[in-house]
Structures are given as structure tokens and as C-alpha cells.
Amino acid sequence: MKGVSRETFDVDKQIQQLAEGCSAFGITLGGERKRKFCDYLEELLEWNRRVNLVSRQDTENIALHHFLDSLSFLPNIEIPQEARMIDVGTGAGFPGIPLKICCPDLRLTLVESTRKKVLFLKHIIDTLRLSGVSVLHERAEALHQDSKYRDNFDIVVARAVSPLRSLTLLCLPFLKPGGKFVAYKGGDVRGELREARLELSKISGRFEREIDVFLPLSNRKRQLIVFTKAHKERNGDAILSKL
Ligand code: SAH
After folding, report:
1. Which of 6, 94, 122, 163 falls 20 to 30 Å from 224 in CA-CA distance?
2. Pure H helices in 48-114
3. Is the Cβ atom of 59 under 6 angstroms away from ligand 1?
4. Mean pLDDT throughout 120-136?
5. Beta strand segments in the chain, E
């Protein structure tokens, strides 16, 4: 970022808060990770002047509301070594990029349908020198029939994309049998979950559990809704017609 002292101060403060929040989650934020989050935050603030990446009312809280929130996965769900993860509707990279910074061996695919956000994602992957990350400028449903993506991921994540019913239809086709789909949700999800469960058996999906997370330092609550897939999905066209 180019010499804006107040923002530089805010960046340092936010990264300090992130380190404290991470420590409460049992995640160590050493020098290299800290530098990466710092660069990520600076670039986000810079790009956010031109492209709507995060709410402009909330730029003082990006580290807690977006980075730390994305990381709430880590103390709660195990990520296998060299897991393949796909982040559907990743926007500015949430939750995929913070997870990649903390789990460097993750093989990450980011899917985003808005071109300007895709440009930001490519820029940030370059700037942070993240390897093993690919970005797809696509609607996720357009990838369902492609054997490179279908039934191919250990973990699917989605944060703030759509209600659970359509989200499970959008995300489960990417899972390997036995893989996990984790939806980041807020508020009262009971109604959404009830509707999603009506569809699950048709797409080989199973609701596994709901994890309530309390985000350190910001008094926010987050729910992680975990689904699994029993076997390969055969009826892709039927899914598309429901979206
Ligand atoms: N996950 C990010 C962004 C949430 S906003 C975060 O938590 O901040 C939802 C994003 O999903 C938008 O950027 C939108 O362009 C993208 N999106 C919505 N439907 C999509 C689809 N079917 N395929 C790919 N991207 C989609």
C-alpha cells in the first residue's frame, strides 16, 4: 500500500488482532504467515477502492470478520495431508486463501463467476506466491459435468453464497465419496437445513453435524454445517434442473 499512515497503522493493528484470535484457535501465526496476511490485507484495502470485494463499512475488521472467520474451520475439522479443496463462490478468497496460508500443502481450487474478483484472486495468488492454487472464472454448476472436478475433491467449502438447499445441490457434486462439504453459515439455519435435508438423499448427501463457533475478539458466532457424500453422483442433469 502506498504510504497512507492511518491505514498502515490499521493494518498492523488488525494483524495483531488476527494473531491473538489465531492463538485462541490454537493456530500459530509465525513470521511468514503474518507477512502473507499483512500483504493480503493491504492489497484488499487497495483494490476495494475500485472493486467491491468486502463491505466498505467494515474495512477496519477484515482480519477478524474475514480472515479469522475463514480459519474457524481449522480447530474444528481435520484437513487430510495434501487434501484437494474447492471453494465455491470464493469472492475475494474466503475462506480458501486464509486456509491455504495456514495449510500450505492444501491443493486449492477457487471458483468465482465475477470477472473483477477473479482478477483480484489471480493478483493475490501471485503477490503471496501461493503454489498449488488455481482460479476458475466460471459458474460452479458449469463444472458439474467435467470429470476434472466432479467427484474429485476431499473438501468443498462455501461461505455466504446461497441458502443451504441450493448450496448443497451446487457443492456436493464436487465431493469424492467420503469427502466433506462445509458451509459457513450465520443466524438461525434450522429452516434452511430442513429444506436442504429434503434433497440430500437424491444427491447421495448426508448431514453430518453442525458446529457452533464463537469467534475470538469480535463476539460473533459462526456455524459450520458439515455434509458428507456417500457415493458417486450419477444424476447430474437432475441436479442442474433443481438449481
Ligand atoms: N465467499 C466469499 C464471497 C461471498 S459473496 C465471502 O465469504 O466473502 C458470493 C460470491 O459467490 C460472489 O462473489 C458471487 O460472484 C459468487 N457466486 C455466486 N454464485 C456463484 C456460482 N454459481 N458459481 C460461482 N460463483 C458464484
Report:
1. 122
2. 62, 69-71, 96-102
3. no
4. 98
5. 84-88, 107-112, 133-137, 153-159, 175-185, 205-215, 220-229
| Ligand 1 proximity of 222 Cβ (cutoff 6 Å) | no
* Residue from 42, 156, 99 nearest 53 by CA: 42
The pTM for the full model equals: 0.93
- Give 72-229's CATH code, choosing from 3.90.1150.10, 3.40.50.150, 3.40.50.300, 1.20.1260.10: 3.40.50.150
Residue 28 has which C-alpha cell?
A: 500459530
CA–CA separation, 43 vs 65, rounded Å? 17
Atom of ligand 1 nearest to the CA of 184: 7
Grid cell, residue 100, equals 491455504
CA distance 180 to 224: 11
Where do the structural domains in the chain lie, given as residue ranges?
Answer: 72-229
Find the radius of gyration of the CA atoms of the chain. Answer: 18
Compute CA distances 195 → 57, 181, 230, whole Å: 33, 17, 19
